[in-house]
Amino acid sequence: MNRKTHALALALLLILVGMAIFLWKVRAFGYPVMPDETSAVWTVQAQIEVDPGEAALKVAMQLPTRTPGYALSDEHFISRGFGVAVDDDPWQRIATWSQRRASEPQTLFYRAVFFEDDRPLELAPTPRFPDPPELDEPFQTALTEIVDDVRRESADVVSFAAQVLVQVTDPSPEDNMALFLEGPLGLDRAHIAQLIMSGARIPVILLQGVRLVEQTRDATVETWIAVHDGTSWTVFDPRTGDQGLPQDFLVWYVGDDPLVSTMGATLEAVTISIRRQSVSALDLATERAEQAGSQVPELSLLALPLDLQSVYEVLLLVPLGAFIIAFLRNVIGLRSFGTFMPVLIALAFRETQLVAGIILFTVIVGVGLLIRFYLEKLRLLLVPRLSAVLIIVVLLMAAVSVLSQRLGLEAGLSVALFPMVIVAMVIERMSIVWEEQGPVNALLDGAGSLFIAAIAYLVMGIDLFAWWVLVFPELLLVLLGLTIALGRYTGYRLTELFRFRELAR
What we know:
Radius of gyration: 37 Å
Structural class: alpha+beta
Strand content: 15-25%
Mean pLDDT: 83
Number of helices: 19
Shape: elongated
CATH class of the domain at 38-123 and 210-220 and 245-294: Mainly Beta
Largest sheet: 5 strands, antiparallel
Helix content: 40-55%
Oligomer: single chain
């Protein structure tokens, strides 16, 4: 492998690695690409009102556990004088409030915050086949006939469940189904469907949940039904027969138990309130990564102190400015004094603003150049001469600041942010070019340096780029790969096409 191929292969590898990490953070954890992106979170609150008796009081409440499409961000138990214990069973979480004596009605609160997440539909472990229910006549006969009829009209578990719900939701049901719908059992559609599918020995569970809406103070707990085909769960709406969970449905808990149960008290009311809020997409992505156990938040620059983040927000723009300069010099063919001088001047322009920065830089370099010509007559050695130029630059910067303060020019005060060593080196380099190649070349190099610094300032001043390099520092690998590939460019520069246009004719 020759050097050119090696360099291009390395550049391609760096670009692919940087983009892969970037896309992984965006797709896996939802890191925002734009700085002002927001994401929705829902605050769900359950208000429990109980009237205690004379004995010890216990209130048990089902807690969200398996929530396909959503993840639990935070939860709080708000009560006064109650002890709270949480049974964190992975398939069924229950919170229990307890109090030995309660003399007046009590109000308990449970508050949870949810955000959208790509959680799969995992509701319960692989179930066993249920035993057929034993009913009194004529319900047992009607159940058998319904099961036999549906089995003939279906091909598998899912189609069986769908056909059952077609009959359950039929406004004019047949006699056997009407016996369950209108008879003395008093079952709702979900429990009737569960009963029929249990009669066919199909694993079935009930899902209890609420709709996540913008805002409501009295959300209704809805019951859905899920059947297992031996591989996965399939969810149905028992009211319509539709298959699949809607996007706005939050599965609260699984089972047929009530949401809240009490011992030693009377349950007066359970009120569920829902409110939608918008939060920073970056904060939510960080929380999502932490819940997934990823080390990305800990290794991120965002984990640094805020003052250090501000420093890196500027420093990480330097590679971008260096790439812009490399492109302008190697591809466009612009002239400048060195590579890093325009970058540092561009960083100084971020504080002085562009026009004021160009004027201040031109004044200091111009006056410093005149003094440098005077020092040349003294025949000083190189190092003392550079030291003298540096001292002169510092004095000029101080003089400009004082004069600007007296004249009320705030822009002039920011001259102190210029890199004085770089300015001194520019004066020295410009004087040498002036003596060796003439004033035209010296002025062209100086003007080219200022122009490149201005372009770098405009690019580095884009807030989106500053956001990207801080949140996605891996993009610097992409920039490094492009720089290495640019380093192998040996074609014509754009300015050379105009320079040699006569030869092309």
